[in-house]
Amino acid sequence: MYRYLITTFRTPQFDPSVIDAHYAFLDDLRQRGKLELAGPFTDKSGGAYLIKADSLEEAEAIAFSDPVHTSKSSIVTVYEWNAK
What we know:
This protein is α+β, with helices and mostly antiparallel strands. The chain contains three helices and four strands; from the N terminus they run E-H-E-E-H-H-E.
C-alpha cells in the first residue's frame, strides 16, 4: 500500500450543497480503511485528505469519484506521498 495526498481546491462553480455528499464519501473511505486523515483548509479554499491505495491508478479512481470533483465544485489533484 502506498499513501496518496489528495488536494481539493474550490472552483468558481463551487456548490455548497455538495459538502454533505463529500463528507459521506470520506466517511465511506474511512470505514473501508482507505482514509488516514482529512480536513478543510482554514482559508476555506478547499481541503486535503490522505488515503492508502495499491497504485496511482487506484488513488486517482478514488479521488476522481469524490462528489466535489464529479460536480465540478473543486479541482482534485492526486500526489503519491512518501510521508514518514
